[in-house]
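Key idea: predict the complex, not the pieces.
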Amino acid sequence: MPKLSIDGQEIIVPEGMTVLQAATLLGIEIPVFCYHPKLSIAGNCRMCLVEMEDHPKPVASCAMPACEGAVVHTTTPSVKKARQSILEFLLINHPLDCPICDQGGECDLQDISVAYGRDASRYALNKRIVPDKEFGPLIETAMNRCIQCTRCVRFATEIAGVPELGAIGRGESMEIATYLEKTITSELSGNLIDVCPVGALMSKPYSSQARPWELSHTPSIDVQDAVGSAIRLDTRGAEVMRVLPRQNDDVNEAWISDKARFSYDGLKYQRLDQPYIRNKNGTLVLASWEKAFEVIADHFRPLKGHQIAALVGDLVEAEAMVALKDLMEALGSPHIDCRQDGAKIEANPRCSYLFNTTIAGIERADFCLLMGTNPRWEAPLINARLRKAYLATALPVATIGLPHDLGYPVASFGNDPFIVEKILKGRHPLSTALKEANYPMMIIGQGVLRREDGAALLQVARKIAEKYEVVHHKPSTGHWNGFNVLHTAASRVGGLDLGLTPGPKGYATHEILKAASAGKLKAVYLLGVDEIDLSPLESTFVIYQGHHGDRGASMADVILPGAAYTEKSGTYVNTEGRIQRSLQALCPPGEAQEDWRILRALSTTLGIPLPYNTLEEVRLRLVAVNALFEETDTVQNALWMPFGEEGKISSDPFENIIESFYMTDSISRHSVTMAQCRQDNVTRETAHARNA
Amino acid sequence: MAKYGIWFRMKCKVANPSSSSCEPFVFSSENEAKIPEILSRYPPSRQVSAVLPLFELAQRQCGGWLPPSAIETVTAMLGMSLVRGYEVATFYTLFNLKPIGKYHIQVCGTPPCMLRGSEELLTTCKRSLGIDCGETTKDGQFTLNEVECLSACVNAPVIQINETYYENLTEESLQDLLEELAAC
Ligand code: SF4
Ligand code: FES
Ligand code: FES
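Result:
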């Protein structure tokens, strides 16, 4: 471990650290442009120059390894002059349009110029002009502002796995461009906006909408997939102006998916902001909360518990789920299900439904088998982790299911579910691959679990995991659990943790639908259920509680307007089983209320008041139901126990569970930006098909 | 233009898909035969380094320029992404991304040549051929370009025409040279 001194302070750093990182540890600021902690080192902007004794010239600290005995100075006149000169060079061609630039106020070039630059320019010639590029509906470009740091090129190549951006030409004519002006095809493209240190790449939907200092920031959790990415909601007044990632190295590192970042405009359209009831003519009319609750109470009064059922959608937080569960229990109904898609997965044992390896754990794996999943669409950030592992250790990835371009090499073994049995019997090349790996992992997608034979497949998968030591505890490799279920619904793991599955003699989703259409169920409570065909509920009394006038609301007899994820403080459990909290950024629109409050208020009208009145009390109730809810932000290893069901596996191939990445829930379906992305994708694919 | 320079933003043209879907480029059998030797110059893990000699081979076959189809063929052959190949092709002035005339005039504009009068040579070329840098005469005879040091500074100013260096040039000798070339 080398020991070096920076500005007279001594520090011992781990081998392989750079001078810049060592300085950061000491709290010494060195300005940078091209360096980004999550990207490879380019060393091309020279902003980070420092003086090192025994070096004749200033050195780029971002690329200089911290070596034993080095003596570094960052405050000498020569460093000051180097910084001024670099900035002067950068500003030769950089337009001085900060007043109309969206990056103004949060621009690295602006900040660093103020802190380290000269006070005036000496350049009196023409600046160069670079044509703007067309990068699709999400990214606005102003390429005159580009300082050629190549962060965007490295992001696209390294993280997104779409080597489509490049630095074209050289010297003064160097430009960032794609080959023949193609647009960028990545679910992570929005991160280019964050990595760009200047205003060359900006958010198109946010273009000229706000100034950074007008926005309030609220830490939150993304709910549009089950990864649970850490996000920051930037709001002004009653509107979300933009969504940015927060760094969480265990989950999303510094990135978020385009859906998490850009679907927020969907929060503005088709919102439910008033309770509605369906009148005798079958039309929905506005109602007060009291009236709506009375209608429900009147309806429930003659019913027995087992005539009522409840289903839970994909975006619901744990607080509302526990309130619904308690309400159903108080009503005496065993029919409750948080698996609206009918996934064949049980609430016990916990290891059977978690992404046990954890997202960061992927980096330890040395073999990965995907089953019936397209992680690029179902969880872009888990896919990015797989790619990271592929880049670092050449992680071999194999897939059973539809082939997809994941951005790294994947060996496709066809789309035949019987392969799974063959692997178990040791009669498949994958058997050997799993056996030989030290840290094998398998990822089971919802494409497997949603099938009729999902439980049988799950059991075979468990047996594979046991037979080939995918889950093991060995002295040589320690504890390893490579058995993973990849969820797509933000609420699912929370629902399972809280036991929102049918009680004794209770019905699961498909049985609820069947029983309702047969007239055995008289009332169904839908908590944000929008993803399934609800037509079997035609003649049943349906209560819909949620935030968008989507599929569920159109079936409803009573609509109770709830809050979207931005409008409530909620607890979400991601696919790893990580319990995370988000904060409320806005008030729900109109009469809408936080969801657990609605259930609490309804329980009073029904005469079975739930025993909590504040969010804290609901959270205590969460802990009472499952002690895991006590500890947030960490993953607790789930004990390995047998699960699954004996059954016959059908020969039907695995199917895609997501039709379009950009539209998977009631928020993204109402987002104009997401609609544009989808359209763009379709256009591109047809053009591609035509060319091919 | 204003003293302090002006700038404005331009919108690029929408991509023209036909430009990439023209006839695919194939190496002639004679050139094809040279490829294994070229690849063998680089270690197995560094095969992409062969992109330079392969581009050059393709450019020779195409009559002095590198069409997009050739970039596509070579990058596919080496398993590198298109834009990486495009970066290489645009970085080196060695590669012409547009068809060139029979005579490709490359005027060295780096300081040693500049001090010895390369600017005048460039003006002479422009005037007598009636074209600007990067352009080709209407009859397809001449293409003019300014390049960086041709490594023959001892005899500056230097001009390269196709594969021949012309050194110690003056405006007059250059004028004669151009006339001579135009005549044949
Ligand atoms: S566009 Fe932005 S990120 Fe890309 S090279 Fe230019 S300044 Fe850097
Ligand atoms: S930050 Fe070190 S050279 Fe750019
Ligand atoms: S400067 Fe012209 S040949 Fe070197």
